[in-house]
Specification:
With 89 residues, this protein is mainly alpha-helical. Helices cover 85% and strands 0% of the residues.
Length: 89
């Protein structure tokens, strides 16, 4: 197992983490912008107002995206286990 294979596996793992976290980050971004606009329009500057809607939206996105995320993680793990015999040479 050379440095090139370690770098490749690490790179693929980082890409997988970014891909899996993308739905929750996107929802947090959209909800955060919507709440910021609401606060700007109504001039309500409450710091805690953003937390509860964001947490609820992220939780809903996680529930909706769970099957897709699980399929991606299982596929990545199967591919990783499949290449283990080639790494020990």
């Amino acid at each position: 197992m050379g440095p090139d294979s370690v770098i490749q596996i690490g790179s693929e793992a980082l890409k997988m983490v970014l891909l899996i976290s993308l739905p929750m980050l996107g929802v947090a971004l959209v909800v955060g912008i919507a709440i910021s606009l609401l606060q700007a329009v109504t001039q309500i500057q409450e710091m805690t107002l953003t937390f509860v809607p964001k947490i609820m939206a992220i939780f809903a996105a996680m529930i909706l995206a769970a099957p897709w995320m699980t399929e991606k993680m299982v596929s990545f793990t199967k591919n990783l286990f499949a290449i283990i015999p080639t790494l020990t040479q």
